[in-house]
Every structure is written in C-alpha cells, then in structure tokens.
C-alpha cells in the first residue's frame, strides 16, 4: 500500500461481525516464554508504527469490540469511526499487563493525559458514543441491521477525501504528524518544508486553473 500510487485512502474493517479486533490471543500468549512475549510485542508495535506511517489517510471502522491491541490498531489510524454500540478499551491492566503496541503513547495524544491515564489504569471499556464524547473517535453512528454502520460511515468519509489533491493530503498528514511532536516554531518549519514540496506539483497548478475557470479540479497526484 505504501508504494501503490493509486491508493488514496485506506479503511480498516473487520470481516467478523461484532468484532473490530479483540486483541492478542491470551491463550496463545500463555504458551510463550518471556523472551517470546517480548519479541511478539515488539513485532506488534512495529506493525502499528508501519500503519501509522502510511503516507495516505487511514480510517478505522469500528463496528464492534476493539480491545487491547485492537484499540491500539485503531489508534494507529488517522481517523476512527465507531458504531454507538461498539465497545473499546485498553484492558491490559485487567490481565496483569500494560498496553505494549503504542497505546500508552497514542491514547494520551488523542484524548489527553488525564483521560488516557484513567482508561488505562482502570482497563475500562467504553461504547462508541462515550468514545466520541472524549474525542477518541471522529464519528459515532447508530448500528444498522447489517452490522456495518461504522464501515459505511468510514466509506462516506473516505469519499470526502478522495476528490482532494492526493499529494497535498499526504503532505498535510506528514506536517501534522511530524509537527505535533515538536515545539511550534519547529512545527512551522516542518509545515514550510512540506508546503515547498507541494508548490511545484501539477495538482497545485490544476487547482489554481480550476478556480480561475470556475470548474471542478481534476487532480492526478502529481
């Protein structure tokens, strides 16, 4: 996906009704020795980092349970849409663990330190509406009979992104992701570098021409 220039947005959904991702198989984990567990969690953390580093926007469609590593997967995405009835939580402390695939870092960046600590310390599960109220998900929607309401809303959100200039969207994502980790002056410099890369693109010229000619732009990602 990283190298496929035709990909504009990536939507993560589950093929299992009622479950987005239930996290690690603890029965499998119980058979591992300490070294194997450490290696397993490191690979999982690397996977989440790879998802977070995808250059195009990513959307998690949470139509059911997103627990432990399942919520960490959703947190690695740029945007999250949940069914109101979905259940999510970093429940690791209820099993003698702590989040190990990015949850301790991405959750506080998403909802703030106080709420993140409360959710991680208690291992509490929350529904989609609660997640929306605290900013954990971008949208919460009533579940439908097919059990894919969040996926349908995620598709609609993706279709809002699709018409926009692909390279500009990628640079916007890069500027936000890099800038949020540094002081604002450094962030402004990062934005400037991203903007400079966008200036010579054909899509920028097309955007200006379309505005002048009062027509929809036809972006090509170049």
From TrEMBL:
The record's section on Gene3D superfamilies has: 2-enoyl-CoA Hydratase, Chain A, domain 1 (3.90.226.10), Lyase 2-enoyl-coa Hydratase, Chain A, domain 2 (1.10.12.10)
Extract the GO molecular function terms from the UniProt entry: enoyl-CoA hydratase activity
What keywords tag this UniProt record? Answer: Lyase
Q: Name one GO biological process term.
A: fatty acid beta-oxidation
Q: Which PROSITE patterns match?
A: ENOYL_COA_HYDRATASE (PS00166)
Q: Name one GO cellular component term.
A: mitochondrion
User: Record's family?
Assistant: Belongs to the enoyl-CoA hydratase/isomerase family.
* Protein's recorded name: ECHD2 protein
Task: Identify the species of origin.
Answer: Zapornia atra
């Amino acid at each position: 996906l990283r190298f496929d220039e035709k990909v504009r947005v990536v939507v993560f959904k589950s093929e299992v009704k009622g479950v987005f991702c239930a996290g690690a198989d603890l029965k499998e984990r119980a058979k591992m020795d300490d070294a194997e567990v450490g290696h397993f969690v490191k690979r999982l953390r690397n996977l989440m980092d790879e998802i977070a580093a995808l250059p195009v926007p990513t959307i998690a469609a949470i139509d059911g349970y997103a627990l432990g590593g399942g919520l960490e997967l959703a947190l690695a995405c740029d945007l999250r849409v949940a069914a109101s009835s979905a259940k999510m939580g970093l429940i690791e402390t209820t099993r003698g663990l702590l989040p190990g695939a990015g949850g301790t870092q991405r959750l506080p960046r998403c909802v703030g330190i106080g709420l993140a600590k409360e959710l991680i310390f208690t291992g509490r599960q929350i529904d989609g509406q609660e997640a929306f109220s605290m900013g954990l998900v971008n949208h919460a929607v009533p579940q439908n009979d097919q059990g894919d309401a969040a996926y349908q809303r995620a598709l609609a959100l993706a279709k809002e992104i699709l018409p926009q200039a692909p390279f500009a969207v990628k640079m916007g994502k890069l500027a936000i992701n890099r800038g949020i980790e540094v002081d604002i002056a450094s962030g402004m410099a990062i934005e400037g570098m991203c903007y400079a890369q966008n200036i010579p693109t054909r899509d920028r010229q097309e955007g200006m021409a379309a505005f002048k000619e009062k027509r929809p732009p036809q972006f090509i990602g170049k």
